[in-house]
Amino acid sequence: MALRPVQVNIKALDHSAVGRFWAEALGWSVHSGGSGVTTCVGPAGGLVWPDPVAVCVDVVAVPERKTATKNRVHLDLATTSAAHQAELVTRLRALGATPAHVGQGDVPWTVLADPEGNEFCVLEPRETYRDTGPIAAVVVDCADPRAMARFWDEALDWTLHEVTDDQAVLRSAKGVGPYLEFLRTPDVKTVPDRVHLDLLPCPGDDKAAEVARLRALGATDLDLGQGDVPWTCLADPEDHEFRVLAPS
């Protein structure tokens, strides 16, 4: 029994515009959801869901604008050379990204925000991310990476690669796709999460049993006014929101 991350969920006032931005940014395609309020962004070509390698992007319409508070979850984008990093930053700014200042100081990566202010990083070339695809990592701010490693290592069918006082790193057991990284920060949650992970049970596993297992690991139920929906909203031990989706 285990779960796998299948998409990063981003809330947006204009889901179509934010979805188009991320599709262009990643070189992927846009697939509109049947509800009219969701835009799925995934690798180019016919939609395969869940994608066997990529963690897709799901943009959901909400009425609230993002606050000035930095998101606790963001994407790191991979590059293959200094020239590629510079070209990508230029292209993203032409698409509507803006420079973002989150206290990063003098660093080799570039911090930007999408058209609705969601922060992300364009990394300098790193050997670790040479085969991840356009998304190098999904990065989560936390107070205790070791505690996050204990929870998420049990929650997911991914492999724990590293855990220290400052960070914990997981990746698919197949060695494909992006990393999931928990980085120690002094920030605490003050506003609802604008970006979160969506998880899916592995084939043959029961969603209700998986949710019960997560609660036993320390997850708590989360009422966001979602009503009667096929997914379950939970929070991890540091109150990061996530959803367990129903297989479809």
Order of strands, main sheet, comes to 2-3-4-1-13-16-15-14
Q: Counting H and I runs of at least 4 residues, what is the number of helices? A: 4
User: What is the assembly state of the chains in this entry?
Assistant: single chain
Separation of termini?
18 Å
Rg over alpha carbons: 17 Å
Largest sheet: 8 strands, mixed
Secondary-structure element pattern, one letter each = EHEEEEHEEEEHEEEEHEEE
Strand content: 25-35%
What value does the average pLDDT take?
A: 94
Task: Report on this structure.
By secondary structure, the chain is an alpha+beta fold. The chain contains 4 helices and 16 strands. It has an 8-stranded mixed beta sheet, covered by helices on one side. Strands 6-7-8-5-9-12-11-10 form an 8-stranded mixed beta sheet, with helices on one face. The protein starts with a strand and ends with a strand.
List descriptors:
eight-stranded mixed β-sheet; 33% strand; 248 residues
Chart the SSEs and their pairings.
Blueprint: E1 3-12, H1 15-26, E2 29-32, E3 38-42, E4 56-61, E5 73-77, H2 82-95, E6 98-99, E7 110-113, E8 119-122, E9 135-142, H3 145-155, E10 158-163, E11 167-172, E12 179-184, E13 195-201, H4 207-217, E14 220-221, E15 232-235, E16 241-244
Parallel strand pairs: 1-4, 5-8, 9-12, 13-16
Antiparallel strand pairs: 1-13, 2-3, 3-4, 5-9, 6-7, 7-8, 10-11, 11-12, 14-15, 15-16
Pfam families: Glyoxalase_6
Domain VOC: 134-247
InterPro entries: Glyas_Bleomycin-R_OHBP_Dase, Glyoxalase_6, VOC_core
